[in-house]
Amino acid sequence: MKISDRDVLLVIDVQNDFCTGGALAVPGGEKVVPAINRIAQKFANVVLTQDWHPGDHVSFAANHPGKQPFQTIELDYGTQVLWPTHCVQGTAGAEFHRDLDLTRASLVVRKGFRRGIDSYSALFENDKKTPTGLLGYLRERELKTVFVAGLALDFCVRFSAEDARKAGFEVVVIEDACRGIDLNGSVAATHRSFKEVGISTISLEAFL
Fold this sequence. Notes:
Structural class: alpha/beta
Order of helices and strands: EHEEEEHEHEHE
Oligomer: single chain
Strand content: 15-25%
Helix content: 10-25%
Strand order of the largest sheet: 5-2-1-6-7-8
Largest sheet: 6 strands, parallel
Number of helices: 4
Number of strands: 8
Low-confidence stretches: none
């Protein structure tokens, strides 16, 4: 796998709350860290995303009396999964995993900071129209291929990859540098969707 200066590694939400012991732990979440650190050394362009919620965020089950985590509600932009309170601004849970190498990142994109709307994708919030600014950055830097890794495969990685593909980029998901939550078959649905929209999946071995 030859990486050029027109390629970017997009590292999604490798934060304490998504790792073992965190508020919304993805099974084996921290296991992506060594893989991502190794891959990142090959890229001139690395972007990190960081979930960054206010404590009163609309996606937190705790903010809806009588609701439990993983139930859903309807908001003006559609169905919203209710999550355990996680990645609250300024907390240890919102920090990047301590072993993640941050030195190569040229940009950190914070998302989910608007109280009334969740943001799975690194490019657009869940209304599909409020931009994070990352799309403009990728275009202005004239980057062409987006390689995606991180947490969780079936939510923030999936939405980020699909939005980048819709925006016209070549998109490659590095599967063994991701881990999934798998809520009601969401990992299988993610793989089906990737095939349908033309997103490639590769393994870490492609970089060795």
